[in-house]
Specification:
CATH architecture of the largest domain: 2-Layer Sandwich
Distance between the termini: 138 Å
Strand content: 5-15%
Largest sheet: 5 strands, antiparallel
Strand order of the largest sheet: 4-3-2-1-5
CATH topology of the largest domain: Alpha-Beta Plaits
Length: 346
């Protein structure tokens, strides 16, 4: 006869296995439901923000936002990227929690014994993957703080060009030669975004030392103002041009600086047209531009003085007629010329 205790142990095994399977199935089903709910909430929030940006810009699709303010485009890009990051975080967290719960159901004693091994493996992975963690964290801050966006012209130190893709670990930048650079976000220590706000066109024009400076400055200013009034270009120019005056004086040439504030994306086009008009203005004035052996720095490299970011105004500041400040000068003794007369003071 078969031992009743054996049948009892077999029945107990199947009952416990069935309970464990039901517990595992319940954990998996609950995890799937929770992940679905979180994904639904994330999609709902992202969709509401994107649709709000579209309705505010009065467009029907995301691509049409290129005709709307840049802030709306950047908002859509940033929101979708953050939504993708949140979904990935939810998926990874759900998988880890489900595995731990299943292991606690199937092998309750094994979980405690594997604690030390798990800590050692986690420490090893953390040490080996610290660069990846650094890239991901820095990428999240870059996206969340809206430091760069797709289509921006940026200088990341490691690469300079147009941003084609921004992810949590890698930023893709295509330079002027067409090379696509993959820059790790953890390696980015500084970001220069040349597509936000406004830009400044800085032109350093070299003229002969015997040229009439006042006439040259007036001719440069008139050429720049005519560009600012041109219907083709006036929408790209923010403020009226200014002449900052002499930047350097050498024995070969005088360098006069002209600046003009433009929209961020129109700096290069405005600078080319302005150089052409300045050349025509100098030709009409009869000023022959000198040939210099040294390279004249322009733009960011040439803005070396502290007041370059906040230049002095070209118009005179009105002074109260009752209070006029005059600098004190030390009295000068008249010099006696060689013939013994007295030289009048000037």
């Amino acid at each position: 006869m078969t031992n009743p205790a054996w049948w009892s142990s077999v029945g107990k095994f199947f009952v416990e296995s069935g309970q464990n399977l039901l517990a595992v199935a319940g954990i998996v089903v609950a995890a799937v439901i929770i992940v679905w709910i979180l994904h639904y909430v994330i999609r709902l929030v992202v969709g509401r923000i994107v649709n709000g940006a579209k309705s505010k810009a009065q467009v029907a699709d995301t691509q049409a936002l290129d005709r709307s303010p840049v802030a709306s485009v950047r908002l859509v890009q940033r929101t979708r990227t953050l939504g993708s990051i949140l979904r990935n975080i939810v998926n990874v967290t759900a998988v880890i929690v489900v595995l731990i719960l299943i292991l606690s159901v199937l092998a309750p004693n094994a979980l405690g014994s594997l604690t030390l091994l798990t800590a050692a493996v986690g420490a090893g992975l953390g040490f080996g993957a610290q660069n990846i963690v650094k890239d991901v964290l820095n990428g999240i801050f870059i996206v969340a703080e809206d430091q760069i966006g797709i289509g921006d012209v940026v200088d990341l130190g490691l690469a300079t060009g147009v941003v084609e893709s921004v992810s949590v670990r890698i930023t893709q930048v295509r330079d002027v030669n067409g090379t696509l650079w993959y820059v790790r976000n953890g390696e980015v220590t500084r970001i220069g975004n040349m597509s936000l706000g406004w830009s400044r066109v800085i032109i350093d024009l070299s003229v002969p030392v015997d040229a009439d400076i006042d006439a040259v400055e007036e001719s440069m200013l008139q050429a720049a103002r005519s560009l600012a009034k041109d219907p083709k270009w006036r929408t790209r120019i923010i403020e009226q041009p200014e002449v900052w005056g002499l930047e350097s004086v050498t024995g070969d040439a005088l360098v006069i600086r002209l600046v003009m504030k433009t929209r961020a994306g129109a700096k290069d086009d405005v600078a080319r047209e302005l150089r052409m008009r300045l050349k025509h203005a100098m030709d009409e004035l009869g000023v022959k531009l000198p040939q210099l052996n040294s390279i004249m720095l322009t733009g960011l490299e040439g803005a070396q003085r502290v007041r370059g970011a906040n230049p002095p105004k070209t118009k005179p500041v009105p002074v109260d007629a009752d209070v006029v400040w005059k600098p004190k000068r030390s009295p000068r003794k008249p010099k006696k010329p060689a013939d013994g007369g007295t030289e009048p003071e000037t």
